[in-house]
Amino acid sequence: MPTPEPARPVLIKVDRAGVNFADVHRRQGIYIADTPLPYVLGSEVVGRRVDTGERVLAVAPSGGGYAEYALAPESTTFTVPDGIDDGSALALAVQGNTAWHILHTSARLQRGESVAVLAAAGGLGTLAIQLARHAGAGRIIAVASTPAKREFAMKLGAHAAVDSSDVEHLTEALIEANGGERLDVVLEMAGSDSARAALEALAVFGRLVVFGFASGRTATLDTRDVLLRNRSVIGFVLPRIYPVPGMLAHSMGELWDAARSGAIVPHVGGEYPLSQARRAHDDIQGRRTIGKLVLDPAR
Fold it and tell me: What's the whole-model pTM score?
């Protein structure tokens, strides 16, 4: 394809591109928003601005990240601070900002409250655990599918870990992991049965934040389950905040500060040549990865 021609957007020579589960859903044709064709996957890149040579991290709302050159608006392009490598920067772009806003904007997490994080070993989950700890959460419960993933989540700061594969008993397991008490906040992205189990585990005024449906299936919820305990079900997708002045810039600043101070440590779970993007998708769909996945467009 030809090199994109910048108008007002920033043209970036891509060093690394990030992989997100949203890319898988775009490819499958089941993403929550329409995908105009033809379409180049990839909503986040790190590289050099062609006009200034500055090293930047950019969120690309219109895609195009799986490439040697990408375009992004000025408003979603940020200078990468010294000391933060490409993979760490990419982990903070979509998944880091999503985790920050889920906890602070949507769930309005208060110090001392309990939090459960489903898909706890993924790129978003690993950051959500650390951000919840940084925010002063009282008890953090990691939900993941394998012993290795649960062990990794515990090392990041979770106080307990629950097996996500046993959906039938997930509600009881979450409550037990929280010392017999129902939870204040649950972050849910699998969809279907796990969403219903998470809702049932909420305390009075508990908040279920839904930010995906990795299973490819969505849940149908009975509103009586919400009324019974004054619960809230909140949806969050990051692109909706892009047009809001300063909103992404604020969370990005918070994430840079937390990363530089060591309060959060992004984990890169794999780097693939762009020519093996299919393998990266297979691995993330097969739940064989931990942390952030990165593509190298030079290979």
Answer: 0.93
